[in-house]
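Re: that chain you flagged

S.,

Sorry for the slow reply, it's been a week of failed gels. I finally had a moment to sit down with the sequence you sent. For the record, here it is as I used it:
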Amino acid sequence: MDRLSNRLFPIHPDQLTAARSWVDHGERTPLKPRSASSVVLIRDSAVGTETYLSYRRGQSPLGVVGFPGGSIEESDDDAVEWFGPTPLSWAKALGVEDHNLARRHVLAAIRELFEETGVLLAGPDASSLVEGTNGREWMKAREAINEGECNFSEILQRRGLGVRTDLIKPLSHWLSPDFAHRRFDTHYFAAAQPVNQEPTILASKGVWGEWRWAAQEVERRNTTQLGDEVGQPNTVGCTLSDLAVPAVEIILEKIGSSRGCIAYLSHKRPVKVYYPQLAEQNGGLMLEVACPKLTEGGSAQRGR
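Prediction finished late last night. Pasting the structure tokens below so you have them in one place:
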């Protein structure tokens, strides 16, 4: 079993008032979190293991810069062709009792990945995968899902596709801090970049999305290079901790410590819920998270 150590992370400036109010006025009943899913898309490159990061508009509980993902929707209960582990198997893997909830998390993960990046983990059968999802018709389908004009299940049915749930792996389970005004109960998944599919940002709402070398982002986490390259008013001059929630930063560390895609995806992880808590530190407030000390999938990839 992985040994745990307590880690401290800064609170995003937009959340400091809420955090301080939570402390000053006494703890209250936290808002009920919305169920959400997020997918860590990874690939091997000449320099090391890379992951796809994108800019997230608004005050997303998944961070200003993070992995594709979002809330579970009613349509995630729609009937779809399903390849891979059963919802019952997924419930066990995710550590949840309700197999219907597990199914929603898995379908939401695949849906959000397609909507936000165009990467579609679906095929006509249990051993095939759709190719070339960067065309105009695929973008129209993504936009239609985003605008609520049609459901993900309709896109799949029209093309005779089923979701390949065997192509994603459970990573971790995170709860937003109690004081947050928007809270997520998020299951993170990982998937390798499919052959002949390349992520792109959504034409109407996408701002920035890029493959980033995980080990390098961790190595320069205290610089503002990532935020400056994203180039948005709320990213310029910001460090990784300013931009990303603790879940994203820790996952980047684990990817950077792996020997590659296969090693990272095949690493066996215990079912654990990460629940950041407020902690006083030098007169200020920080987020404290109990995290595993061990690397995942090998030795570290050092930045060059």
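What I noticed first: The mean pLDDT is 92.

Talk soon,
D.
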